[in-house]
Amino acid sequence: MAKNNPLIVIITAFLVLSLMLSLVKAAPKNITTDQHALLALKDRIKYDPTNLLAKNWSTSSSICTWIGVTCGVRHHRVTALNISYFGLAGTIPPQLGNLSSLRVLDISLNQLSGTIPSSIFQTSSLEWLDLSDNQLSDSFPSIIFNMPSLQVIDFSHNILSGGLPSDIFNYLPNLKVLSLNGNMFDGQIPLQIGNMTMLKALHLDNNKLQGMM
Ligand SMILES: *[C@@H]1O[C@H](CO)[C@@H](O)[C@H](O)[C@H]1NC(C)=O
Ligand SMILES: *[C@@H]1O[C@H](CO)[C@@H](O)[C@H](O)[C@H]1NC(C)=O
Ligand SMILES: *[C@@H]1O[C@H](CO)[C@@H](O)[C@H](O)[C@H]1NC(C)=O
Ligand SMILES: *[C@@H]1O[C@H](CO)[C@@H](O)[C@H](O)[C@H]1NC(C)=O
Ligand SMILES: *[C@@H]1O[C@H](CO)[C@@H](O)[C@H](O)[C@H]1NC(C)=O
After folding, report:
1. Cα–Cα 20 to 30 A to 141, which of 10, 38, 117, 158?
2. Is the pLDDT reported for residue 7 higher than 90?
3. Distance (Å, rounded) from C-alpha 160 to C-alpha 153?
4. Residue 15 has what pLDDT?
5. Residue 140's closest CA among 185, 187, 207?
6. Residues in contact with ligand 4 (CB, 6 Å cut-off)
7. CA-CA distance, 83 to 89, in Å (whole number)?
8. Which domains does the chain have, with CATH numbers?
9. Given strand 104-106, what is the order of strands in its sheet?
10. Rounded distance, CA 196 to CA 213, Å?
11. Is residue 113 classed exposed, middle or buried when 0-12, 13-18 and 19+ CB atoms within 10 A define those classes?
């Protein structure tokens, strides 16, 4: 019997690869995925002064009727999550990254703490990302370059720290607003920021950044 026949090796490799690809494609995301993601968030909220989510985010009604949630008319997926100024304390669950049709994520003006799950930066449809005025502590998410549609990044007034990666700013061609003020970022201001032609507002003050634009 032929040992290590190259043809058999190639065919086997091909079959294994096809199987892996079919597994990846097997679970299309739908409104049920979105519900799981929102319930994971509800679960992470440790303080909800008016019991807003506890009362309103009820599994007996469609998530599209939940306060702060907007669904798309055609595809019936969550397109916006805006829980700004709900007074919530807690952390952000990685499941939020499963809201794969999300265009707007506004969780500003709460007391959310902990790190920003990197899965959020897999929602390539995201245009508006406002995490401002929370207590998020993390480094700048370098993985953000996966999101060419982003127009607004507002991370202001958190406790984010570390340097700003220089290369990512080449991959955000549509960015109009970049607000990183009121954090603990340090190091040099990346020169690449000066090359962002769409940028209309840039706030970097109240950090420990150096350099000139
Ligand atoms: C969503 O997809 C899962 C399988 O991935 C399926 O079991 C479920 O019925 C679907 N839900 C809706 C509302 O289509
Ligand atoms: C949740 O809030 C929305 C918007 O205020 C409202 O339309 C909906 O009826 C509420 N649902 C429940 C179950 O209270
Ligand atoms: C989120 O809701 C608040 C309060 O209703 C509003 O001021 C803000 O503009 C909304 N955010 C976005 C991105 O639409
Ligand atoms: C959603 O996200 C979590 C964590 O990122 C993951 O474990 C889970 O399998 C994802 N998919 C669905 C369909 O909920
Ligand atoms: C900015 O863009 C110009 C022209 O495309 C290029 O030559 C330069 O290297 C860029 N600067 C940085 C810091 O990437």
Report:
1. 38
2. no
3. 14
4. 55
5. 185
6. 27, 33, 36, 94-95, 97-98, 119
7. 12
8. 30-203 (3.80.10.10)
9. 69-71, 78-82, 104-106, 128-130, 152-154, 177-179, 201-203
10. 12
11. middle
**Which ligand is nearest the CA of 86, by number?**
3
Share of the chain above pLDDT 70, in %: 86
Indicate which residue's Cα is closest to atom 5 of ligand 2.
67
Per-residue pLDDT, 1:
46
pLDDT digits (tens, 9 = 90+) for 38-50: 999 999 999 999 9
Q: Summarize pLDDT for 54-96 with one digit per residue, the tens.
A: 999 999 999 999 999 999 998 899 999 999 999 999 999 999 9
Which tokens hold the place of 99?
A: 């809201």
The sign of the torsion formed by the CA atoms of 94, 99, 102, 107 equals negative
Q: Which of 90, 92, 98 is nearest to 31 (CA)?
A: 98
Residue 36 Cα: closest atom of ligand 4: 14
Length of the chain: 213
Q: Nearest 5 degrees, angle CA 77-CA 52-CA 88?
A: 90
What is the rounded CA–CA span in Å between residue 14 and residue 16? 6
Please name the amino acid found at residue 137: S
Helix and strand tally (H, E) in the chain?
Answer: 3, 14
Question: Is ligand 5 within 6 A of the CB of residue 65?
Answer: no
pLDDT at 163: 96
